[in-house]
Protein 1
Amino acid sequence: MRKILTLILCILLAKDFYGQDPNFSQFFVSPLTLNPALTGKFNGGYRIAGNYRNQWPTISNAFKTGTASIDLPILTNRISEIDRWGVGVLALTDKSGNGILNNNYLSLSTAYHKGLDEDGYHQLGVGFQGTYAQSRLDGTKLNLGDELDANGTWTSPTQDPLNNVVFNKNYFDLAAGIFYNGATSDWNNFYFGISMYHINKPKESFTDALFYLNPRVTVQAGGYFPLSETANLHLSAMHSNQASARNTVAGGAVEFLLNQDEYAPVSMYAGAWLRLKDAVIPYVGLEINNEWRFGLSYDVNTSSLKPASNTRGGIELSLIYTRQPRDPNARKLNCPKF
């Protein structure tokens, strides 16, 4: 029993004091995990986003994370045409240690974006997000010290009665954020935002020990600018801080227009991001009809984990579908394009 409780304690200590929340290299296409104030921040009827990440697969499938979300503007006929009120739903699942620790989240978010000028080029938004979280530690998948036989395999029967116990923990979480975006014309945009997750510092422990989830503060900034009639430069960066863990990612991609069809444009993205002291992240993307956008990135590990990971940081896939306005003449706000 002492062995398994010690292991649980180590997992919790690592998570609470040294680890971080699940995060994506393609943070720029995961809006509801980046900042609640991004809810409804787009031009269109609704937006569906999905992300999948497999990090350090050579280290016993260390982390597998997936999300699915939908958000949309509401009351568009009752508020100012330069304002936007959005609501959204996010589901996230995260598996650690080859499925030993599972975390599942269901979030509801809302944000209101207020136009700051009559043309709608500048907006300031405030958003909130509430999350129901479920954590599960599966003791049946743990390999304990007394299971290791003389041949180095995990075949000996354990004497620990908790080896077949599954631990569960549920809690409610709260997040909030603000977001500003501006433009000087219809062809560029720049933005800045800040968000805080785990504002209420929920208790996250499978035992009676008092371990609390530390607040995470994330700052994000970026923009896009025309390079030519057929190319745009997209830049983005974010920095998050949670207890002693810090995560800084910055980079950009060039968008190349592949055809001249005004009603069915096709664009390709190519670029790279850098996670400070951890990985180089090349990225390619494809956008069709201003609605579908596919993204693929791969973390090339550059940290001290290179020997264990074989320089394989992890693959990440993203997909966003944005339903275009039914009325082609409807007024469009100058929203950021990530």
Protein 2
Amino acid sequence: MAVECLHAEGAGVRRRRGKLVLAIVLVLLALLLRTDTRLIGPVQALALPYQFSLEVWEARNLLEKWLHWPREALPWRRLSAQERRALVRDYFATAREVAWLQAMAQRGLAPPTAEEARQARQRLETLQRKMDSLRPRVEEALEAELSTLLREEGLVRRMGPLSLLWPPVDIRFDQLPKFLALSPRDRILLQGGVLLRGDTPLDAITTLETHIHQRYNLSALVVDLGGIATYPSILSPFYSPAQVTEAMAHEWVHQYLFFFPLGWNYYRDPEVRALNEAVADLAGKELGARLMVRLGYAPPTRHPTPPHAEDFVTQTLRETRRQVEALLAQGQIEEAEDYMERQRATLARRGYYIRKLNQAYFAFYGLYPEHPAAVSPMGEQVRRVREASPSLGAFLRTMAGFGSYREFSAFYQAQVRP
């Protein structure tokens, strides 16, 4: 009975998705593309050879999604919940082996004989073909599992007799783009950014950052992304299961919030953007952990480094940011940049490597209140609102309605803070 219900629910989501996805794409894509218009024209032109085209990506992937959905709706292709979870585990295990073989090849660690090297290449090609063949059904399986969790949280829209999960969960495994973050040199502020292709080489990245600094007096940094809330969301298949489940939930929360004040004002107000990211980060972790359990994995642990090492990094980065802001307020730009480089070297000696520590680094990562580079109390405030909420769904509905940090702060002072 339970399996039959899951079949019916998954099929219903797929049927509705075909009717709704185009509207979501047009709205979300318009928002994402709008950020490009905020950039300084010459800087964007400088990055053009490496720029990631959202239009091309959406056209290519949405067409494939639409062609795949009708096949999956056929009764004889439906999978039970157990079959879906086994498929997901097989895919992640295959991806892990592919990543290992690719890393060995990139490092020049070839097998000792020509025959063994040939077998390794053949094995890699076989596994890559397997990943390509599994990917569409694995995407559908993960979407169905997360959709079930979201429905359990009551995150549906009522339309007459129907209850609709909006927006439908939709993901795509692909190479993630990188993000070129820009900040003025005289203050810490995310002024704009450009999406770059994920295969942009490091020498091109460093050249681009240097040219932007020298020619346009801007602080620039190219960062790796954990996911991106296009539609479908882009996720890396080579991340761990815990990273993938958290990222897909995180990006869905962004898409959900887009239809409420907290999403409408994302690009208008840096504080709202940070609040939006704090909500997506917290909810993504919670949903991701629950999704891991549904898939048969152990829940993820949250101790990537020893506590004392984490404390050192957090304290160093936050102290650095405060000191940099003080120096910039006095107009001491070069002194602030020299200080950041010394602090970067200090962190590297303690085993925490940051490729480049500059104003753009703090501007980008400072949007995430849980990141060590952030100094805002927002993360703790959002966490306390979640603790005071009866469910994750109730928490998201509450947070979605805030159009400014002032509104959130007033609610927090009146309803949460003792």
